[in-house]
């Protein structure tokens, strides 16, 4: 007897091939049969006629340690993500090394599969992390203070020939020319032709999500704390205000305060810097610096700095995939902050906006980009495809209804159109609701 049968779905197997209709039989955590199973018995049978079944989506840019506090992973599972690859420091508050983190995650019993990439400038620590199961590739953010083309070229120069390298958030901000993104993609193409294993991701949104402090020009990671310590000095504030005016004076309405670390300032959430400045009767630059000082730098912001056409161009590249760039979080919160809607809707927005509406990719190719492509890039064995004996991680959705509902004003909303999500052969989402099952595994390099 089979454990589960998916009855008559349209199968998009993750390879980019055209869909076909037949049944899928699951035994344990593996796909056992792909054939007409109308005469076979199963403990559970899901009626999938008219729906698409695809491999579970892979989010390549999360935060693995966040699953310790949120093992249900609602915002990821409810949009079809069955595997998350996250960045973590080598040591954290609850672990002394990667093996310790993995043991803690196994105890937490996450709902999805988790793999990690270690962030460290210490080569010995990185080697140790990989020996303990961290993925064997490098990942670095582009330097946003440098011109985009220059930053991409610099990143390519740093990539070792022997190692896979992933660049997150690969899209220019406030680009003065549409040619910039094409030139950057051409640079990646040339590097790949010369043997470099490079790939990129992008969140399918116009707004970035980062600390407001990061928007100060020239505020590198080594100088931000120093800048913050001097925000009560007249000369420092005057110099920073001038730099901010030169960079953003036509863009203050495009920067929205999304979170503050002080409840007394919670009224600022949802306001643009322009609106906040008007309320404070300051110039926008001075208002931004004042808010940073009052909140001790703990301010997050949405910056609508990305051209959607540039996002579409990046998504058209064969080496690009989709990411949430967000940690796991609950649909319910008493917090006054606003998370980015990509945390709850990146994958359905990709299919709704860029596949169904803008037709950047076919549905078959879109599925490949969020399944077998990242699985291959990140070395996830027997995942990312629907094939006999491969792991039974699948998402079943209505193509015509699959769409994001999360907005910048109301981000904590699950998408429409997902019927079921299956992780390791178990149903974890049913009719858009979390089932409570927590079958996720820790995917260690070399054995995942």
Give the rounded overall mean pLDDT: 92
Query: Which CATH class of the largest domain?
Result: Alpha Beta
How many domains, as an integer? 2
Classify the secondary structure makeup into a structural class. alpha/beta
Q: Work out the radius of gyration.
A: 22 Å
Give a verbal description of the structure:
This protein is α/β, with parallel strands linked by helices and 448 residues long. It has 13 helices and 21 strands. It folds into two domains: 225 residues, Metal-dependent hydrolases (TIM Barrel, Alpha-Beta Barrel), CATH 3.20.20; 95 residues, no CATH class. Helices cover 28% and strands 22% of the residues.
Short description:
The protein is α/β, with parallel strands linked by helices and about 450 residues long.
């Amino acid at each position: 007897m089979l454990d589960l049968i998916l009855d008559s779905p349209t199968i998009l197997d993750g390879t980019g091939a055209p869909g076909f209709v037949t049944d899928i039989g699951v035994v344990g955590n593996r796909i056992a049969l792909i054939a007409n199973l109308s005469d076979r018995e199963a403990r559970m049978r899901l009626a999938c006629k008219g729906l698409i079944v695809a491999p579970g989506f892979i989010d390549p840019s999360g935060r693995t340690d966040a699953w310790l506090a949120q093992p249900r992973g609602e915002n990821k599972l409810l949009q079809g993500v069955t595997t998350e690859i996250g960045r973590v420091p080598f040591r954290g508050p609850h672990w002394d090394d990667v093996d310790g983190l993995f043991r803690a995650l196994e105890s937490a019993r996450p709902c999805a599969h988790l793999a990690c990439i270690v962030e460290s400038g210490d080569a010995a620590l990185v080697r140790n992390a990989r020996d303990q199961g961290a993925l064997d590739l490098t990942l670095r953010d582009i330097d946003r203070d440098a011109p985009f083309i220059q930053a991409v070229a610099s990143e390519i120069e740093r990539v070792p020939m022997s190692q896979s390298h992933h660049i997150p958030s690969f899209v220019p901000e406030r680009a003065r020319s549409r040619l910039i993104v094409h030139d950057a993609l051409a640079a990646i193409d040339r590097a790949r032709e010369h043997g470099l294993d490079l790939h990129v991701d992008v969140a399918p949104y116009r707004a970035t999500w980062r600390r407001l402090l990061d928007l100060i020009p020239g505020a590198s990671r080594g100088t931000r704390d120093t800048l913050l310590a001097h925000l009560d000095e007249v000369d420092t504030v005057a110099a920073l205000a001038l730099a901010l005016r030169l960079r953003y004076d036509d863009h203050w309405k495009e920067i929205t305060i999304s979170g503050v670390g002080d409840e007394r300032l919670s009224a600022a959430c949802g306001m643009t810097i322009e609106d906040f400045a008007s309320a404070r009767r300051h110039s926008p630059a001075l208002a931004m610096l004042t808010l940073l000082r009052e909140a001790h730098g703990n301010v997050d912001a949405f910056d609508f700095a990305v051209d959607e056409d540039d996002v579409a161009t990046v998504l058209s590249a064969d080496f690009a995939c989709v990411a949430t760039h967000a940690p796991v979080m609950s649909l319910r919160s008493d917090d006054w902050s606003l998370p980015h809607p990509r945390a709850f809707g990146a994958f359905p927005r990709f299919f709704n906006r860029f596949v169904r509406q803008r037709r950047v990719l076919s549905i078959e190719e879109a599925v490949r980009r969020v399944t077998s492509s990242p699985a291959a890039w990140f070395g996830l064995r027997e995942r990312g495809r629907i094939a006999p004996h491969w792991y039974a991680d699948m998402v079943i959705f209505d193509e015509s209804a699959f769409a994001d509902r999360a907005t910048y004003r109301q981000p904590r909303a699950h998408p429409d159109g997902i019927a079921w999500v299956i992780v390791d052969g178990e149903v974890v989402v049913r009719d858009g609701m979390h089932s409570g099952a927590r079958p996720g595994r820790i995917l260690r390099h070399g054995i995942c």
